[in-house]
Amino acid sequence: xxxxxxxxxxxxxxxxxxxxxxxxxxxxxxxxxxxxxxxxxxxxxxxxxxxxxxxxxxxxxxxxxxxxxxxxxxxxxxxxxxxxxxxxxxxxxxxxxxxxxxxxxxxxxxxxxxxxxxxxxxxxxxxxxxxxxxxxxxxxxxxxxxxxxxxxxxxxxxxxxxxxxxxxxxxxxxxxxxxxxxx
Length: 183
Fold this sequence. Notes:
The protein has about 180 residues and is mainly α.
């Protein structure tokens, strides 16, 4: 059974995203928040994109206030809290990678990431050997191209979410919507 902790130590640990939750005994939530914070920081530094950094502030504030609020709960409320992963409901909910579309999608993302890293390293090696590369080409490969790819992936993901919603409708809802469209 988890118990509430010292408020000062909770505050200190809450300053690190996920550590406050771990200190309070919510290890799955803490790992979720900490890993999300680190992944967003790595992506934003890899793609030189300032707006992505803003998500880290949101994650940090959420983790901080969540830990403080959990510790401020009554003993009954605190004991009733469940420790679960933030983005998946247990390991059984993780998508199976042997499914065709998901596997191909992951392969495409990994190929794009590998191509980006390869181009980035090739540019670095060329500059070490004093081979001149126009600034515009260098900037396009290192900064603009990754941002374009990320923007396209965000748009694609949004379209997939909208399309997925229509596929999730029940048969009765589909018949109702089709009847409205015919009128």
